[in-house]
Design goal:
single chain, alpha+beta, eight-stranded mixed beta sheet, seven-stranded mixed beta sheet, 10 helices
């Protein structure tokens, strides 16, 4: 099967991401532009096109390594990536498109979205899980499926008559950043760490797709969550609770309020994201009765680079 590969424009990429039923915000140019502004990492997108004009788009960040001997393509901050498309394909065509981009790129690190038809199960993939809560039903029905401790914590916090509030000002974002900094005393090895500049960039995008939700009561802001919205999926990307309210365990109440608000707007999936191979995080997320699906990391390294890295390690260079 002949597949033509060419650079894709930003407009073409945006159009496909908008029309792709399962694409997330992490597949959009908005996320790649933001990460470029934060990290300086350049990005691009390629189109893989069948003879009849149907196509898939592959967006990526890249860095030239070993003085340009290899170009490393990746999805930023371990977020979802890979091929997206607004067209339908047969199984044979899906396989051919995957093979085409695997032939083109020999140095990759891509997290695949489990609802994508291009996601796969292979031995060269590092298996991880993500936790997607279907939010088609009324919130009351969704909560009934939650683990008892989550339901108990929800009722406890509801006695405070909390209100879900969308942060609008820089001061509110700074308060959330303060809560985030307080969480580090509870993590020996945090999976990632972002400085204030990254949160400032999120705020300054002034985008309807980026929302910082704060759960507020008379006592003050209890907890918050940064969510990214696209098509029918919202990503609970980042969550932090003020230390003084940690024993209240307000997360279940926060999630219930976000689900209620997002369901009203027509969203179908609330993605809690992967657990970073941390069992305590996975246990917490399993308590919300999500669909637990593979969120695999596809890692590909050229053989010559593997040999080079092995030699350097053996020589302790």
């Amino acid at each position: 099967m002949k597949i033509h590969t060419r650079p894709a424009s930003i407009d073409e990429w945006q159009d496909v991401a908008f029309r792709c039923a399962w694409a997330t915000w992490f597949h959009t140019p908005e996320w790649y532009r933001l990460w470029n502004e934060y990290s300086g990492s350049p990005f691009a997108a390629d189109a893989f096109e069948l003879p009849d004009g149907r196509k898939a788009i592959f967006p990526y960040h890249f860095s030239n390594q070993l003085r340009g001997l290899t170009k490393f393509r990746f999805t930023p901050a371990g977020t979802y990536g890979g091929l997206i498309s607004a067209d339908e394909f047969s199984e044979a065509e899906i396989t051919a498109l995957r093979q085409a981009y695997e032939r083109k790129y020999d140095h990759l690190r891509i997290r695949e979205f489990p609802l994508s038809p291009f996601a796969r199960n292979r031995t060269d993939i590092k298996t991880e899980l993500t936790y997607l809560i279907p939010i088609h039903e009324p919130v009351e029905n969704i909560i009934k499926g939650w683990r008892r401790n989550h339901q108990r914590n929800l009722r406890q916090v509801q006695r405070l008559n909390p209100v879900l509030h969308e942060a609008r000002t820089e001061e509110e974002w700074k308060l959330y950043f303060q809560a985030y900094q307080e969480t580090f005393v509870h993590w020996t090895l945090p999976e990632s760490e972002y400085d204030w500049r990254f949160f400032e960039l999120l705020h300054k995008q002034d985008s309807p797709n980026i929302k910082l939700w704060l759960l507020k009561a008379d006592h003050g802001i209890l907890t918050g969550c940064i969510c990214f919205y696209h098509n029918n999926t919202l990503e609970a990307w980042h969550q932090a609770t003020f230390d003084k309210f940690r024993d209240l365990r307000p997360n279940a109440c926060l999630y219930a309020a976000i689900i209620h608000k997002s369901r009203e707007s027509g969203y179908c999936w609330f993605d809690l994201g992967p657990s970073g191979f941390k069992e305590n995080v996975a246990h917490f997320k399993r308590g919300f009765s999500p669909r637990i699906l593979p969120s695999n990391l596809y890692i590909r390294t050229p053989k010559w680079l593997e040999t080079y890295q092995h030699v350097r390690k053996s020589l302790d260079l």
